[in-house]
Amino acid sequence: MITRLLLFLCFAGATPALAQQAVRVPVEALQLTAQLFRPAAAGRVPAVALFHGCGGVGINNTRMAGLLKDWGYAALVVDSFTARHLTDVCGRHWPTQADAEAREGDIDAALLWLSKQDFVDPARLAFIGYSYGGGVALLRAFQPRAPRARAAVLLYPDCGLGGPLGAAPEPRQPTLFAMGALDDWTPVSQCQALIDRVKVGRELVETHVYAGAHHSFDALGLPVRYLAGVGNRSKPGGCCGAHYGANETAWKAFVADVRTFLARHL
């Protein structure tokens, strides 16, 4: 069963040791729940909003938020699902293009919320999207409007959602693509095809492909396995099946790459 198979990664949630403060982020008529990780540093700090994949907030999201906090960033892990009465959309409820575009507003709402906090430097904001959330973040990162963010990180993003970006997508801020070479859920080839279309702002795109890594290579402790029932936008008709699981070497390289990227741009 998909829900059980994704339990470790997607439903573990924030552990008591990491959860800092429960907050709410207004977006249209909803109040999104979120976890705020605030560093001990005095004064205004840069901040990063994190957006989960199709299974909801997972321990991979909160682990990253804990690292960001240790590096001196405020980190906001946004739950896009609970307020919408969703839990797992990896299977038969695989999100549509319209779902992704609607969720894009969550990124704007989270960045706006962060910008209003008296401990956040509103000029130094970034966002990170994972998988389906990475596809949503992709749409936001390439939106033709003045960005509020200074940097975007797309972790094994669903680049199949990038069709509406057109023949010449243009990044609006430095954008890091981090992908597993063996990913057959959100394959590198889809993202590379999109990146190849970038003509203006190509210098803003940074790409890292981690050898031997599948989808969710940051799911530390979870062996690679095949999920037969998950939706897969990279397959004909959007169905079905993909591998996912941990690769600690790729995870460590990703952490180093993100730390360097954020330090450079925030």
**Residue fraction in strands:** 15-25%
- Mean pLDDT equals 91
Q: What's the CATH class, please?
A: Alpha Beta
Distance between the termini: 41 Å
**Any idea what the CATH architecture is?**
3-Layer(aba) Sandwich
CATH homologous superfamily annotation: Alpha/Beta hydrolase fold, catalytic domain
CATH topology: Rossmann fold
How many separate helices?
7
Summarize the biggest pleated sheet.
Answer: 8 strands, mixed
Give the ordered list of helices and strands.
Answer: HHEEEHEHEHEEHEEEH
Which runs of at least 5 residues are low in confidence (pLDDT < 50)? Answer: 1-18
Gross geometry: globular
Explained architecture:
The protein is 29% helix and 23% strand. With 266 residues, the protein is an alpha/beta fold. The chain has a single domain (2-265), classed as 3-Layer(aba) Sandwich (Rossmann fold). An 8-stranded mixed beta sheet has the order 1-2-4-3-5-6-7-8, sandwiched between helices. A two-stranded antiparallel ribbon has the order 9-10. 48% of the residues are buried.
